[in-house]
Write a structure and sequence with these properties.
Layout (H helix, E strand, L loop, with lengths): L6 E4 L5 H12 L3 E6 L3 H13 L4 E5 L5 H15 L4 E4 L17 H26 L2 E6 L13 H21 L4 E8 L12 H5 L10 H11 L11 E4 L11
Parallel strand pairs: 1-2, 1-4, 2-3, 4-5, 5-6, 6-7
Length: about 250
Amino acid sequence: MHLEGKVALITGGSRGIGRAICLRMAQDGAQVVVNYRQGATEAAAVVREIELAGSHAIALQADVSDGAQVLEMYRRGVEALGPVDILVNNAGVFRRGDLADFDFSQLAPMRETNVDGLVHCTRAAVEGMKQKGWGRIVNVTSIAAHGTSMPGTTFYAATKAAVMVLTRRFAMELGASGITVNAVAPGFIVTDMSAGLAAEAILAKTIMRRAGTTDDISHAVSFLVSPASSFITAQVLTVDGGRMDYLSHG
């Protein structure tokens, strides 16, 4: 219960990796804001599961790509639970495409959610963290950002590479205020977003010979916001089971 008394906000918290992180933050003692864009029913189910386990959570709708919606979400979250101590920028959008066939209209929603959304949410959270002199920010990126052999992910990878850069830059800007900023880079994780990818070919390149689970990522996030990581910032923790096609890219 190392997060008792803390408030954690997880964007894209209604399903997949975000859902697992919400449940883990509650298990660790935090009160949880479950952000969602469209999945109201799923977000409500996450809140119920947390409350049945004896913790407290609320679900708040906001499209993180819209700065005004983010500010309203934070206002409501602070009103209900207090200032956010822990921010997990998990919300993400994936569109397939490479150089030859990519539709540039598909780049905008990825950039607006994966990059702009991270900036909107971080800006909203840091003032309260600075006032307390303590804060934890974890950004969810992807091993695709290291450089990938998987076709169809070029421009998605570019947005996730921006997340890695912003992680290190924000860590530099915020460290003197007692705020750490780190990232988790998942490998192949079984979620709705990964459906349809060539799972067997990917697993053949993985040292552990298995796909990752959403809990594998939530455990990593739990570590990065725990007292055990208080001297760790500006880092990207890769959680991919040892992808052999990425070992030279770390």
